Amino acid sequence: MDQNNRPEDREKRITDSTKGVKKRGQADDPAAGTQRAGIGAEYAMPLIILTGPTAVGKTDLSVRLAKALGGEIISADSMQVYCHMDIGSAKVTKEEMDGVPHHLIDVLKPDQDFNVVLFQKMAKEALTRIYGRGHIPIVAGGTGFYIQALVYDIDFTENDPDPSIRARLEKEAAVKGARHLHSRLRQIDPAAADQIHANNVKRVIRAIEFYEKTGTRISRHNETEHKKESPYDFLYYVLNTDRGALYDRIDRRVDRMMAMGLVDEVKMLAQMGCTRDMVSMQGLGYKEILDHLDGRCSLEEAVRVLKRDTRHFAKRQLTWFKRERDVRWLDLPAFGDDKEKVLAHIIREISLKGWLS
């Protein structure tokens, strides 16, 4: 075995790297290197982000990377956080985890709300634990806004909910429909309307509520927050492939979900009391099958809509990532569709950061 690459030496090198990287413009302070908290520490902590459109292969690559680094994974997926929602969320299995610690998986019940504020809080808590163990965290998942909120530590304190405004807007959505509410958002905040799908009623309501409370467009607030310097020393990777290959992967994933029993999973959730107005049941795969179970469409039509809407979702994800700064694209065709080559490339760049030296 290479005496410079023994497991115990690699662990020491990673532990040393998670003592932090001094932020620009700060004086040397030997004591500062012992600070372990990512947020507010004098030294920026290392953080790896591995994201990309749905079905591109993030899960497999993130596990390979974590095993190569001795790292831990934080899920940035708005659905895998829920228990009992395994097939429709394409949740990573115990076998796929391959012994790598995963965080924010199976931690909420389907009737509980989950949003960017809660994700940010839970992810920060996970980061503290991971840094405390001397490991490098890998944020893996496709929810771009969640990743942005964590990487740039976006401040959501001005977005505390107002129950009276929220109740009024929820009633308006129920009576006049999601499209009506989305058109209202477009009138007051066109940029937010472009970023938020009309069917995402919860986010549309939050955006209108923010404007009514503060007089400021939520898109402007988020843009200001996004300009902040990140408290982390991060590498932000977006895994991608050509559109035809991606759409084929999406179609095959949906077919696998159906074969694995997605209909039965949604039936079980309905029997547990889950309804379509819950945040969890608005996820792709669940609302479409609910439509079928409620007699609104045939199963064949539900599958067709699911495939179509998943392709549209992937397109919106890519649009989001193209707007992000400091992103490093990993185009699979450029690596001959060989994930081992992609992994080697990432590890090379991590080494150049000095995290493994």
Describe this structure in words.
- This protein has 357 residues and is α/β, with parallel strands linked by helices.
- It has two domains: 7-154 and 228-249 and 324-352, Rossmann fold (3-Layer(aba) Sandwich), CATH 3.40.50; 163-221, Histone, subunit A (Orthogonal Bundle).
- The chain contains 15 helices and seven strands.
- Strands 1, 2, 3, 4, 5, 6 and 7 form a seven-stranded mixed sheet that branches.
- The model is unreliable at 1-10 and 21-41 (pLDDT under 50).
Please report the distance between the alpha carbons of the first and last residues. 18 Å
Helix/strand order, N-terminal first: HEEHEHEHEHHHHHHEHHHHEH
Largest sheet: 7 strands, mixed
CATH level-four homologous superfamily name of the largest domain: P-loop containing nucleotide triphosphate hydrolases
Number of helices: 15
SSE layout and pairings?
Elements: H1 7-17, E1 21-22, E2 43-51, H2 58-69, E3 72-75, H3 94-97, E4 102-103, H4 116-132, E5 137-140, H5 144-151, H6 163-176, H7 178-188, H8 190-195, H9 201-214, H10 218-226, E6 232-240, H11 243-260, H12 262-271, H13 286-293, H14 299-323, E7 327-331, H15 339-352
Parallel strand pairs: 2-5, 2-6, 3-4, 3-5, 6-7
Antiparallel strand pairs: 1-2
Helix pairs in contact: 2-15, 4-5, 6-7, 6-9, 7-9, 11-14, 12-13, 13-14
Structure characteristics:
about 350 residues, disordered N terminus, Histone, subunit A, Rossmann fold, 2 domains, single chain, alpha/beta
